[in-house]
Design brief:
47% of the residues lie in helices and 19% in strands. By secondary structure, the chain is an alpha/beta fold.
Length: 477
């Protein structure tokens, strides 16, 4: 016998939605639910939206969406906040069009501190005692990082805000590491991203973060494994989680907390426009400083010019007085020397050799050269003035020296003619030689040197360096 299949009525989607709505609202016409408030917000319409959450014993988080309409006075007057544990009373309702359900709350009473908030505060105190949040551990961010590492979800809006902000301010290099930022395994994923970026040698700063959300949405950034990874990072970390009002434990462990992901981009790189403005200001300040230095140096050169001109005059006045004194002494000596011509000529020759104006003039010329070198270092303007002054004074010295020498020129020439035959170098012209030891002393006897000694032989023209091979007491004819 053939078995016919049982006929089942086919329902439309609308029929199923109405059946579920009717069953839900009749079965849970009035209930009281205890849970932790998360994601609380009050809309402009006056309605309030939040969720009651609790930890699932098998893992994860259970959540029941709730709404308080503005006309529910008893519930609307309660000041709810995330982390608060409450008992909400109301009825279950369903949106038939989307098959979603929620608790419409008409009364709320506080049930004590929420479980999530309690766990958060316990972990915060424990990690603070270990020093993970100490201000002394915070490191400054580099001014211009070689590369910026970002750990976040590449499918979220936060990564776009971070990258757009950074590139709008400075053409930086960015290394993105994708990670889930919410739910199971999110904390471990972000921690692995931090560990990876610490192995990249040219990453100088790391940004971790995500957009805003409820307390349970941001819970991954409160988990101990991620907080410890942030504190142990070799590279400075910026924590940019949620909005400015949101605060997570990675904010306390990071080197810098950014109120938003967008703000993180402004923290890690400077503005190129600001850098250009700073460079322009530095160029202006440097130009002003150099101008002041040049002005001060110019004033110092003017002062040195005046001092050197005065010193130069005094320097040349002294040799002028010495030349005048020498002339007077020569005049007086000449009168005495005329009484004894021979003695007078010899004394005159000795004194002229020691106090000849030409010798003094040579010394003064060397001093003038040194002074000219100093003036040359002080600038062409001072050198030109000094050269003029030195030229005039040198000319006057030459004139004075010539005046002193002219009356005694004949006597000096006669003295020279008498001294020439007495010169020890005269015999050298006739083929004789002078032998000197290395210390300059004359060798007069054979026993003053020995074989192997070095000697110098002075000839009529030139000299010889020689080595003694043997000595003899007798002379060779």
């Amino acid at each position: 016998m053939e078995v016919q299949p049982r006929t089942v009525d086919v329902l439309s989607v609308a029929q199923v939605s109405r059946l579920v709505k009717t069953l839900l609202e009749t079965s849970f016409a009035r209930i009281r639910v205890e849970g932790e408030v998360t994601g609380y917000k009050r809309a402009a319409s006056g309605h309030s939206y939040f969720a009651l959450t609790e930890r699932d014993p098998e893992g994860g988080t259970l959540k029941l969406e709730c709404v308080i309409y503005r006309f529910a006075r008893a519930a609307a007057s309660v000041d709810l906040r995330d982390g608060q544990r409450v008992v909400a009373s109301g009825r279950m309702t369903s949106y038939g069009g989307t098959s979603r359900y929620q608790l419409t709350v008409d009364a709320v009473e506080e049930a004590g501190i929420g479980d999530l908030l309690r766990r958060l505060e316990e972990l915060r105190r424990r990690l603070a005692l270990e020093g993970l949040f100490d201000a002394g551990r915070k490191r400054p961010l580099p001014f211009l990082p070689r590369r910026i590492g970002v750990v976040t979800s590449l499918r979220g809006a936060a990564v776009r805000d971070i990258v757009r902000t950074i590139l709008a301010r400075f053409p930086a290099r960015i290394l993105l590491v994708d990670s889930v930022v919410q739910g199971d395994g999110a904390a471990q994923g972000v921690a692995r991203g931090i560990d990876f970026l610490n192995l990249v040698s040219d990453v100088d700063v790391i940004i971790i973060g995500r957009g805003g959300g409820s307390l349970e949405d941001l819970w991954a950034f409160n988990e101990e494994v991620l907080v410890r990874a942030v504190a142990a990072s070799r590279v400075p970390i910026v924590s940019a989680v949620g909005h400015e009002v949101d605060h997570v434990l990675t904010d306390d462990a990071a080197d810098v907390r950014a109120p938003t992901p967008t703000a993180a981009g402004t923290l890690v790189v400077p503005s190129l426009e600001d850098i250009d403005a700073s460079l322009a200001d530095l160029r202006s300040r440097l130009a002003s400083a150099l101008t002041r230095r040049v002005e001060v140096a110019g004033q110092r050169l003017d002062d040195l010019d005046a001092r050197l001109r005065a010193a130069g005059v005094r320097t040349l006045e002294q040799p002028r007085r010495r030349v005048d004194d020498a002339g007077q002494r020569l005049a007086r000596a000449g009168d005495r020397l005329l009484k004894d011509p021979r003695q007078g000529i010899e004394v005159l020759a000795a004194r002229l050799a020691a106090a000849h104006p030409a010798r003094r003039l040579g010394e003064e010329r060397r001093r003038a050269v040194g002074l000219a070198d100093r003036l040359r270092a002080l600038g062409p303007r001072l050198l030109d003035r000094s050269r003029v002054a030195l030229g005039v004074e040198a000319g006057r010295l030459r004139v004075v020296g010539q005046r002193l020498l002219d009356p005694h020129a004949a006597a000096l020439e006669a003295c020279r003619l008498r001294l020439v035959p007495l010169s020890p170098f005269g015999p050298l012209e006739r083929g004789y030689a002078l032998v000197r030891r290395p210390d300059g002393s004359l060798v007069q006897r054979h026993d003053q040197v020995g074989p192997g000694d070095s000697i110098g032989v002075l000839l009529g023209t030139g000299a010889l360096d020689a080595t003694v091979t043997a000595t003899r007491p007798e002379r060779q004819s």
